[in-house]
Amino acid sequence: MTRQNYQGSWALCSIALSLNLAVLAALPSRAQVSSPLPSPQILARRVTFEPPTNERLNDSAGGASRQAAFCPQDGMAEGASLMPILPETKEGLTVSERPTLFVYVPETKSEQGYFILKDETEDYYYQTQVSIPQEGGIVRLTLAESAPALEIGTTYQWSFVVACELPARADSPRVEGWLQRVEPSANLNNYQGVDSIEAATSYGAEGIWYDAVTTLADLRQSQPQTYNQDWVDFLSSVGLENVANEPILEP
């Protein structure tokens, strides 16, 4: 190719390149025409509770308590009354040796309550006093390290009693629930001792109530701006929307 032909070809290529660049510059950018993708955290987050398919843990679970739901000195409570943070059946599963339970306690002048746990034959019996924060909220009840570990496959009944006066009376406000410890699945073995939204999602999907709600409570406490809505949605899905926005209190 002669020098003159080479220069002519180069000029034509330069013109074509300039035209292509002009066309590309006139096109809207990808960011302008595409909607932003949700973050992986948002895509992965949807903690739901799938009730276990096995039979009820206790035939009397879910029955209405005959005790009053408030102390006489507090008057009729406005809004939600004393209630366990449990599904409507008032029962749930756990994979923990010493699980955490939650109870909503309305604002009260009472300063003390009792947490009681026993099995069906009362061969296992644990009781401890609990200081009640008077402002009202969801109280965390964790089985102490000194308490015997729960046995796999055994059904336990737990109670929380508000001592309106001391000593507590038989008709003191009381709520009850049932729990059973089960073997964790291979998947859940990966999440024991881990506080993550993935752990909460896995517990909820496998019907492990107590561990799902405890994990979400820990996440809500440590990062409220990130995980408060997950907590609210989870409780609301089982009919606890009236107390879902209440603070979590340490006794």
Helix-strand category: alpha+beta
Percentage of residues in DSSP E strands: 15-25%
Which architecture name of the largest domain does CATH use?
A: Sandwich
* Unreliable stretches: 2-44, 59-66
| The CATH homologous superfamily of the largest domain | Immunoglobulins
End-to-end distance: 91 Å
Sheet with the most strands, sense and barrel status: 5 strands, mixed
Oligomer: single chain
Give a structural overview.
With 251 residues, this protein is of the alpha+beta class. The chain is 29% helix and 20% strand. The chain has a five-stranded mixed β-sheet, with helices on one face. A four-stranded mixed β-sheet has the order 1-3-6-9, covered by helices on one side. Strand 4 (112-119) and strand 5 form a beta hairpin. The longest helix is centred in the first third of the chain and has 24 residues, at 3-26. The chain starts with a helix and ends with a strand. The relative contact order is 0.18. Mean pLDDT is 79; it is low at 2-44 and 59-66.
List the helices and strands and how they pair.
Blueprint lengths: L2 H24 L3 H4 L6 H5 L38 E2 L6 E4 L5 E6 L6 E8 L5 E7 L5 E6 L12 E8 L11 E8 L4 H4 L7 H9 L3 H14 L1 H13 L11 E2 L2
Parallel strand pairs: 2-8, 6-9
Antiparallel strand pairs: 1-3, 3-6, 4-5, 4-7, 7-8
